[in-house]
């Protein structure tokens, strides 16, 4: 593998309103340093892609944004969200995750009905008003572009849905909690091309209401759906910019080598 000076980077300041940012973020798995001093700002109601080779730290970084690494790793530095450092130990992680939802690579619906998948989190949080639940059920499934396909069989097991439908159900389950940010960790990598396109269309529509940060291995997908892109290499954020700039006119040699496939 080529070597690069990872002390150098090119991190653009975001001109849009900032929704969430990391400051001097470091992640350690035991003695292994996995993320080095990551400083990134994410624009509100925009889609940001995290790209880079396998093992570059994209998922590790993403998981920090809603404290999913708490039990796996030591995370130093700040995650600033609404003037609060949500990486601070006193912060209630369950409250954080209501506002910052996450969808994983493999669809993981509960072994319950479609309806119960959507309502479970709401009911667990003390929401029992029938009208509110019905409204959330319908609006979440509509936002995730699944309503038309399932509206007549809401009692059917979620596990009977196709992989792509299950993943849109997981997105619907997340947005039922009315988060402000959605973290998506390779949400389409286990899906066929048609399902992938549906997820991409859904993501593009969702940014009107949510700030979206997505890990993807597909550079084509990053260019199709994201406004901003961060390129990770060996735990460092090498370059961060508007997607069009990063892909068409990268500033760092590592970025241009990665994009052109001349990375090995
Ligand atoms: N739970 C864990 N325990 C120990 N090390 C881990 C753990 N998760 C990730 N790592 C290590 O941290 C580094 C970054 O991994 P991470 O999964 O964040 O990379 P990635 O860019 O998301 O990779 P991929 O594209 O393959 O998912 C790797 O060296 C990986 O082996």
UniProtKB/TrEMBL annotation:
Its GO biological process annotations read:
phosphate ion transmembrane transport
> What are the annotated GO cellular component locations?
membrane
Which Pfam families does this UniProt record tie to the protein? ABC_tran
> Listed GO molecular functions?
ATP binding; ATP hydrolysis activity; phosphate transmembrane transporter activity
| Keywords, comma-separated and alphabetical | ATP-binding, Cell membrane, Membrane, Nucleotide-binding, Phosphate transport, Translocase, Transport
* Stored InterPro entries: AAA+_ATPase, ABC_transporter-like_ATP-bd, ABC_transporter-like_CS, P-loop_NTPase, PstB-like
Keyword Protein transport in record: no
Every ABC transporter domain range? 20-259
Q: Does the keyword ATP-binding apply?
A: yes
The superkingdom of the source organism is: Bacteria
**Protein name per Swiss-Prot or TrEMBL:** Phosphate ABC transporter ATP-binding protein
């Amino acid at each position: 593998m080529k070597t690069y000076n990872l002390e150098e980077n090119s991190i653009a300041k975001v001109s849009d309103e900032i929704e969430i940012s990391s400051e001097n973020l470091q992640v350690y798995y035991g003695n292994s340093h996995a993320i080095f001093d990551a400083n990134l700002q994410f624009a509100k109601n925009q889609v940001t892609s995290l790209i880079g080779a396998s093992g570059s730290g994209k998922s590790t970084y993403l998981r920090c944004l809603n404290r999913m690494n708490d039990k796996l790793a030591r995370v130093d530095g700040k995650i600033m969200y609404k003037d609060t450092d949500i990486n601070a130990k006193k912060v209630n992680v369950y409250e954080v995750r209501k506002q910052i939802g996450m969808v994983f690579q493999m669809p993981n619906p509960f072994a319950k009905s479609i309806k119960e998948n959507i309502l479970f989190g709401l009911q667990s949080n003390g929401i029992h008003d029938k009208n509110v639940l019905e409204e959330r059920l319908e609006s979440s499934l509509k936002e995730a572009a699944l309503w038309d396909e399932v509206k007549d069989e809401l009692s059917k097991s979620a596990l009977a849905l196709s992989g792509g439908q299950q993943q849109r159900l997981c997105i619907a389950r997340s947005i039922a909690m009315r988060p402000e940010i959605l973290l998506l960790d390779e949400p389409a990598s286990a899906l066929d091309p048609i399902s992938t396109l549906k997820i991409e269309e859904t993501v593009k529509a969702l940014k009107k209401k949510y700030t979206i940060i997505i890990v993807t291995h597909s550079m084509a997908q990053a260019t199709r759906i994201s406004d901003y892109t961060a390129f990770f290499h060996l735990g460092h954020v090498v370059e961060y910019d508007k997607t069009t700039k990063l892909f068409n006119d990268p500033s760092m040699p590592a970025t241009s080598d990665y994009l052109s496939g001349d990375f090995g």
